[in-house]
Amino acid sequence: MASSSRIDPSTAAEIDRLATAVAKDPRSKEFLPLADEYIKVGMWQEAAGVLEDGLKVYPGFVTAMAALGRVYDQLGQPAKAKAILEDVVRQRPDNLRAHRILAKLYHAEGNADLALLSCTAILNANPFDDEAAAMKRSITGTPDGPPPAKREKKRIGAEPKPDTAKVAPPVTPAFEPSVSTSSLASEPVLETTIQPVPEPPSVKHAAAIARLEAWLQTIQAQRVH
């Protein structure tokens, strides 16, 4: 179990939970996250024990093998680290973490050829890996040069969109017949006769009444005489 005086309570609780699960079921794959928790807090010896036990149940588990190789390197056991990490890269040539540790181990023991192979594997995957590039230069004796220029992404300009606005059709002027002044001059001018406007019936009726009244007055005057 984890000691709460060395790590924070939440991490200690997680380690205890995972350790209990592995103790109850030795075939549980919880051994790998348990080892990761030990590694996070620098408990390398505990991590090594958990990984070794787990690999007995799951031999060839590459992720656990790579983790154990790292732990062996931290514990100062280069022979064990190199042996298990070489097995890792045989199965997974693209495991860059294993290549990184191997390059350091090979370089430390003076095996330049194998160190260059691991550096090259890393740089093939990531040409901008400064650590691998520096190690390769130190092995080959190449002077430091400027870092490789990063590729610039081509900016593809957006193609102008076609103008979808509807163009109004040209306005066709209404047809207007042309009239020449000569034709107007040759046309005969019609004289207009003004007809008298007939009086409305009401006016005629009033005039008749007036004449009738005048006639009656004349008759009455004759009778008086």
From TrEMBL:
Residues 155-164 have a biased composition (Basic and acidic residues). InterPro entries: TPR-like_helical_dom_sf, TPR_rpt. TPR repeats lie at residues 62-95. It comes from Nitrospira defluvii. This is Uncharacterized protein. The lineage of its organism: Bacteria, Pseudomonadati, Nitrospirota, Nitrospiria, Nitrospirales. Gene3D superfamilies: Tetratricopeptide repeat domain. Residues 137-201 are annotated as: Disordered. Keywords: TPR repeat.
